[in-house]
Predict the structure.
Amino acid sequence: MGDASMVGLMGRVTGTVGPGLVGEVIVRVRGGAEHFLAHPADGSARITPGTVVMVVEHLPPRTVYVTAAYDS
């Protein structure tokens, strides 16, 4: 799956994403749901499990940079 097709997809945090952490998100892709390693897109946000996020960058094969989809 190319980078362009992952960017903009929504997912949910399953393991805390934050500075100095390798978090985890689950994203619906390719007709199913897959887990990806995740980092905060701005490099400083802490995103807790359950938060809906949007993929802003994809580094194949399994790493994404994400931002919270909604302000809390």
Notes: The CA atoms of residues 18 and 40 lie 6 Å apart. Residues 3-6 form the longest helix (4 residues). Strands lie at 10-15, 23-29, 32-40, 52-59, 63-68.
